[in-house]
Amino acid sequence: MDARTARTRARLRASVLALADRTPLAELTVAEVCADADVVRDTFYRHASDVQALLADALGAEIDAHIAELGSRAGMEAAERALLEHVAERARVYRGAMRPTLAPAVRATLEDEIRRGLREWIRLHPEIDAPGAVDDFDREIAVAYAAGGTVAAIELWLRVDGEDVASATRAILAATPEWWLR
Amino acid sequence: MDARTARTRARLRASVLALADRTPLAELTVAEVCADADVVRDTFYRHASDVQALLADALGAEIDAHIAELGSRAGMEAAERALLEHVAERARVYRGAMRPTLAPAVRATLEDEIRRGLREWIRLHPEIDAPGAVDDFDREIAVAYAAGGTVAAIELWLRVDGEDVASATRAILAATPEWWLR
């Protein structure tokens, strides 16, 4: 990506995050995002297929930045807390993307980011393994289960609170198979 | 619900399941379901807001029937296997509802059914508790995590296979926090 395209993308991401902070996602139009980011429609569609996809991309970039700061050697608890701090900071955006469950692209991005983190965790800790797992299918199921479980827990947390990161971290780690936490 | 309404609902459910077995959900129209079930549009909308909602309702009713057959005292493994047998029987319907993740109403119905089963499981086995859980929020998070994790695992299974119930049951139980299985 050249520097100009990168700057435009950064502007589009900042605009969609700012707008989605005060307007429910379903009501946000491509025209509003274009006006705020000062780009034309053609430019928008070179970056995203619709507003939901652009918001998912912007949130994914923030999660990447949060996780990168941690360093790959940080423990599961620190990674979980960093993820939930991101969600708490963007709680209004995430809540605005629920109807009543998270918009599919936003949910998929969250699940993808968590799956990526868990695969990296397994790569760094090859001694970690589900007790009953016998092959790669079992391991991929374990990763999918933990990622989908974490997103469902985050959805519930957003519905009832979305602020108390410490108690959500404790509750989600308690709900996680303990062999992940070794 | 009077007997006539119940018969109409049964016909609508049978029609949407038959049609969704051979046509991707996104391509199915209310008109096609009405023609197959021999009802008028107004009648359709008294039962469901759209085709996706009707399909979710029809699949939910099948899961209810599967679970009811089991009896409430059956173990977690039998319940998991019964759920996966239902998914395998309806694998073409579920796959047709993925783009690429499950349509939100279908996913929500699956999650709701599993959450309901897990709450009942906890009610029957009050000795079951997440090791780190301290309050009802933690317990609801544990239920949401297990239900969301199971649905995400089912999505992966549908993508790669969706037929081998025995290995999917083993893999999903291995991915489940072991305190659920006591």
TrEMBL record, chains A, B:
Positions of the HTH tetR-type domain: 6-66
Q: Which GO terms describe its molecular function?
A: DNA binding
Entry's PROSITE patterns?
Answer: HTH_TETR_2 (PS50977)
Keyword Secreted, does the record have it?
A: no
Q: Which residues bind DNA?
A: 29-48
- Keywords, comma-separated and alphabetical: DNA-binding
Residues making up the signal peptide according to the UniProt record: none
- DNA-binding: present as a keyword of the record? yes
Name this polypeptide is given: HTH tetR-type domain-containing protein
